[in-house]
Amino acid sequence: MASGQVRASHILIKHQGSRRKASWKDPEGRVISSTTRDSAVAQLKALRDDIVSGNSNFSDVASLYSDCSSAKRGGDLGPFGRGQMQKPFEEATYDLEVGEISDIVDTDSGVHIIKRTG
User: Fold this and answer.
1) 37 within 8 A of 16, measured Cβ to Cβ
2) In which residue ranges is the amino acid composition biased (Basic residues) (predicted)?
3) Residue 76, domain member (yes or no)
4) Neighbouring-strand partners of residue 113
5) Annotated catalytic residue 86
6) Which helix (H) or strand (E) holds 64?
């Protein structure tokens, strides 16, 4: 990993306000188009609680629930540097310690929780 880079995994839940209303698990965007931001946040908070309490594994949850194509890698986005991700996502990731999981992060893509892995 290059100097100044971080590595992270995330779980993305898309909603009606997302800029692209389709995903690998909802190619037509039917579920996404009827999901409010509030219900996306509620779902993500429940998933986060399960992970933080030790009932679930972050990468397993990402594989099942994330609307990002990184789901097939357990949510792993690989290494990235400043300026490569949407600003709120980047800032949240850089603010985390390795192994720490963010609160809800809003971007144009939807709502995320982020786990810094490197």
Assistant:
1) yes
2) 12-22
3) yes
4) 11
5) yes
6) helix 58-65
Structure tokens at 103: 């609160």
Q: Is 112 a catalytic residue?
A: yes
Active-site residue 15, yes or no?
no
Give the active site residue among 10, 15, 59, 66.
10
Name the residue range of residue 79's domain.
6-116
Beta strands 6-13 and 110-116 are antiparallel
Q: What is the CATH number of the domain that holds 93?
A: 3.10.50.40
Residue 11 main-chain phi, psi, to 5 deg: -125, 125
Among residues 15, 23, 66, 68, which one is catalytic?
68
Convert the pLDDT of each residue in 49-83 to its tens digit: 999 999 999 999 999 999 999 999 999 999 999 99
Residue tagged active-site, from 16, 33, 63, 86 = 86
Number of domains into which the chain is organized: 1
Is residue 58 a part of any domain in this protein? yes
Its pTM surpasses 0.85: yes
